[in-house]
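Quick sanity check, histidine kinase:
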Amino acid sequence: MESIRELCGRRAALNEKDTATIEELARGLQLIADLSQSDVFIDCPLADPGTALVVAQAHPSTAQSLYKTSVVGQLAYAHNEPAVMYCLLSGQPVTGSRGISQEQVAMQQNVVPIRGTNNRVIGALIQEQDISEKVRQERDVERLKETNEQLSETLLSVALSEGSMQSLMHEGIVLFDEEERVTYLNPRAKAMLAAIGHPDAKEGCAGGQWFYESISWRAVFGQTGVITKELQFGKIVYELKALSIYRGLRIVGGLMLIRDISELKDKEKQLHIQSAVIKEIHHRVKNNLQTVTSLLRLQMRRTQHDEVGQVFRDSINRIQSIAVVHEMLAYEGIEAVPFREVAERIARNVVSSMTDSGCSIHTRIEGAELLLPSETTVSLALVVNELVQNCVNHAFAGMADGEIGITYQYGGRMFSLQVADNGRGMAEETLENNGGRLGLRLIRTLVEEHLDGVFVLQSSDRGTEACIVFPSCLIPSEGVSAQ
């Protein structure tokens, strides 16, 4: 390969002093390439004004190079690198010019002139970066723009055709020119406009007043190019979608689609009313249940028998567990309840109602946040109430403190719930006849008949664990969500 001195002196015809200038600059070429993350070159002019000679080159070590091989000694031509030729001839720098490399890759050039003896341009310092990906994206955008223009033309031709397809459409179609004059209305659009007080709507008229100046075509013809609005006229509600139509790069008009959403809005209104009514019903049910519990508390205070008082207390807890669900439904306004909060409130209510104040009982809830359908939640609330109540009443007799753990899991095909305590356990005969107590009979009925599940009770001297499992098909996927 020829040296810089040979290339500059023999082929570019530079004198000794100018050649030394080029050599001095070439020594720092690698540093420039690394800092700019670009391929850097020095080109020198030749006798032919349309060509230049590459005398030095540096590949960046900090980025991908444009070139697989060295191009030193090759010629650069004006049709591939116009910025280089302009810089060499005019002595002016060029920034951001595009060209084609010797290896036929699209690139962007920054070119600075190199001056020698008598301020004469003796070369050009060139930075080149690969923009082939950028060029590809620009071509894709251009193709998309062409497709959009073709689609606009197609819509225009379809709308102006004499076929009967437009009469079958549910949306009204209105075409405007750039002066806001109506050029086409389909039969559906005429009927919809007549319904809001414009029976004389037709081609050739100005449509700007149809919607009482609530829509501006100038906004469509401006930078946004699209408008979507909902307009109400008494009981009629229309959704308007408008967009500009292009021919080439020029806006030639606009297309508006009118959709009657009155029935949809009326159904939304009815749903809001029904939701409010349902919330009020749940609120009143909760209030009535709280009234019942207040009456039961009055009765409980009048009895002198501990056993009767315990029956009252158990009944109050059961009613309150149902009231908790209705209270949440009243505030949330949906037919689903956060089960974790239900379990926490029920456990807290039951523990606070215990009669033996000498025992400190702690509760622990484990499980992901879940929204469960209200019917399923009511059954689970009663189950949790009975299980926690049994722990409070029977598990910790003679103990200074205790813990009740509530764990639930939802996944796959099953929902499982465990309530465990670290108390003294159950007697063997009680465990063998676990349906004997009213609370346990109630749990078994709820699990087996309401939830189609299984109830298992295990006990030892380290505590008692109750487990229920039921199919997750009772929890529709649209009624369950992780929070």
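Posting the structure with no commentary besides this: Residues 140-260 form a domain with the Beta-Lactamase fold (CATH 3.30.450.20).
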